[in-house]
Write a structure and sequence with these properties.
Structural class: alpha+beta
Helix content: 40-55%
Order of helices and strands: EHHEHHEEHHHEEHHHEHHEEHEHHEEEHE
Radius of gyration: 23 Å
Number of strands: 14
Distance between the termini: 46 Å
Number of helices: 16
Largest sheet: 5 strands, mixed
Length: 396
């Protein structure tokens, strides 16, 4: 007989495991921020700064005491974190680097084929010259490879040299040693990853066990597919084989969806105890990044929270339902709506263009007060002075 948890318990559990029950006033500091990122496992990075970049919004949603300078220090000075790929570009604890070696090895053949097809035969031979150049002179930005206006062009000064930097980063030969603005500075991997982690190796079995057990710890419950997709390190078949062998580390649990239908999942062995001792949700509204880990798995999100979300950056304007870059709103353990807002830095203001509440949710005076307080926090994060609502912004 399997255990069971209600939909409300499931929502609360997920938000807790993803760091959204932390006391939001408590100072983090670099150590606390490092521990938070360890808890999450990774934080996706993105270049779009509609309000603030995704990595900063994700961490700020968990603590208003978050400071972007602390993240930069953890990445570029302390080397507590490194940048590479999960489902997309992310910052990841450096202690996880030995497991990413397996990802580099697994994905190399596919990336070889992709980049060779893209750039033509002999493309991979160019990479040796680029590695030698970096070894001799240190970190490079892609713009350092632009062809000079005069003089002979070396092979790594071709436009495809910029793609080669990405290939070498994705296959573990290079790391992101720092950023100039948001532009990556590439260097040899052993110059950016601490030796304690760079020099460590793990076996295939240790790799699969870590990939599955660490994903389940952060998910609380899930299918083999959920577990495989968390890090994007292993196949669903490998996750299922691991689950079949975990008699004492995994339990079966029936989880209720938002429509009260139940599905059976694999759960942490301590799931019931964890659910019965969850801390309270903070009494505040929070703006979530479209790349927040709670939002990332759209099907799981809709089934558990009843919230359908799609980022419409690549949708033609005439076909958008909501807007170019619209942020989900979390109030307690429910996603109550979405907001279209943008930091207008020249005007020194956060402009609110549209607000839509989900069916069954109302903008009571108490909720409006909580929302206004959150928008002030967002303005502060974006470095602008005031919040301005456009006429007709609140939609029916």
């Amino acid at each position: 007989m399997s255990d069971s948890i209600t939909n409300k318990q499931a929502r609360h559990l997920i938000l807790h495991l993803q760091g959204l029950t932390l006391p939001h006033h408590k100072a983090l500091g670099r150590e606390g921020l490092g521990n938070l990122i360890l808890q999450l496992g990774f934080v996706q990075v993105d270049s779009i700064q509609w309000v603030e970049r995704a990595q900063h919004m994700i961490l700020h949603a968990r603590s208003q005491a978050y400071r972007p300078t602390h993240l930069k220090r953890l990445l570029e000075k302390d080397r507590f974190l490194f940048e590479n790929w999960t489902h997309d570009a992310s910052v990841i604890p450096s202690s996880f680097y030995p497991y990413w070696r397996h990802k580099f090895q697994r994905h190399k053949a596919r990336l070889d084929a992709k980049f060779t097809d893209w750039q033509g035969g002999g493309y991979l031979d160019h990479c040796d010259g680029l590695l030698a150049k970096i070894a001799n002179q240190g970190g490079l930005r892609s713009r350092d490879l632009d062809r000079p206006k005069t003089g002979p062009a070396e092979m790594w000064q071709w436009h495809d040299g910029k793609a080669a930097l990405e290939y070498l980063w994705r296959t573990g030969k290079l790391c992101i040693h720092g950023r100039d603005g948001f532009q990556k500075i590439y260097d040899l991997a052993d110059r950016g990853i601490p030796e304690a982690h760079f020099g460590k190796t793990v076996s295939h079995d240790e790799f699969v066990d870590w990939a599955c057990s660490s994903a389940l710890q952060r998910l609380g419950f899930g299918s083999a597919g959920d577990i495989a997709r968390y890090w994007d390190l292993i196949s669903i078949g490998e996750a299922q084989e691991w689950l079949d062998q975990q008699n004492h580390r995994v339990s079966l649990v029936a989880v209720q969806g938002v429509d009260r239908d139940s599905k059976q999942f694999y759960g942490r062995s301590d799931l019931v105890e964890l659910v019965n001792n969850l801390p309270d949700m903070p009494g505040r509204v929070r703006v979530l990044s479209p790349f927040d880990p709670v939002i990332r798995d759209r099907k799981r999100l809709e089934w558990l929270f009843g919230f359908e979300y799609r980022i419409e950056i690549y949708v033609p304007e005439a076909k958008r339902k909501w807007g170019y870059y619209v942020f989900p709103l979390l109030d307690g353990d429910r996603l109550i709506g979405r907001i279209d807002m943008r930091a207008k830095r020249k005007q020194d203001e956060l402009e609110v263009k549209s607000l839509w509440l989900e069916p069954g949710n109302k903008l009571s005076s108490a909720r409006r007060s909580r929302l206004d307080a959150e928008l002030v926090r967002q303005a502060r994060l974006a470095g602008v002075k005031s919040v301005v609502w456009l006429e007709g912004a609140i939609k029916s």
